[in-house]
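Before a colleague's protein record goes any further, I have to sign it off. What it holds is a sequence and that sequence's fold in token form. My question to you is simply how this chain folds and whether the tokens agree. Thanks in advance; the entry in question is below:
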Amino acid sequence: MLEWLEISPELTLVATATRAFRHVPQAFGVDPFRAPMLGAGAPETTHWLLAGAIAEAGRAFHGWRTGTSSRTQENEPVSPSAPHWAYRLAGYFHTTDATRRLLPLVARRFAASGRRALASWAEQKISEEAGHDQLALRDLSELGYRARELASALVPARAAAWVALFEQLAQADDPAGCVGYAHALERLALLRGPAEVSAIEQGLPQGVNATRCLRVHSALGSDPRHVRSNVLATAASSADERRAIVSACHSAARIYFDPAFDDDLDLRRIEARVLAFQEHARPVTLSRGNPNPIQVTK
């Protein structure tokens, strides 16, 4: 069994039960992948089609992170300063708050159109994500910041792009793409594990617990189960829905890898903005570099 999606006129992504591969459309002769994918999906092929969409997003920007530092090339986590981590927490707040706002709308739209499987997926995710928007605020408060004011004033570019995409997908004629958006963020969250959590905690004041949000949205939390649920929901969807889901997954993953959204490279400027929202003085640990980059394997 095969599933496929045209990423661009020059590139089609094809998935089997064991892998995904790139197919360059043929200029002449019969090309079986030129027609849109039809038929039912299967968990194995759908898994690889989604995985391939994320890998292709990373491959589009492959190499832009290389040469930044020896630690980066060795794929070692780097400890951000407390203010820098607070800025990243603001991004977590905006994406989790968008989930709180938009998923109920998506669930109602699925239910109204009689798509009970997708409605159930959205309702389950609403239950699983309940209160997650508060985790980043709790972490910011623990760091000594006026959490709500900081999150309202600072919107990291990558988070803003994700929220804009989610809003677009939720309001589209067919909101099925919201499944792909959620899958991309949750699958990419699995790349964050104990080493990164430990590295971040090393850059924080001693005794401060400000990694609740990261722990929940990482390989340490419930995202592994969420990823499996997303794959099953996608595989059970129609061919049109699967194309929309995988396409949205690819779009969301591109935002993750796109260096144009790295707005936190000027650490002193970012830290100065964050420190304006300090509620009381805390020790500040200087940054040692950017968070660990994501490596995309072929």
Summary: The domain at 70-275 is CATH 1.20.910.10 (Heme Oxygenase; Chain A). The first helix runs from residue 43 to 60. The longest strand covers residues 3-8.
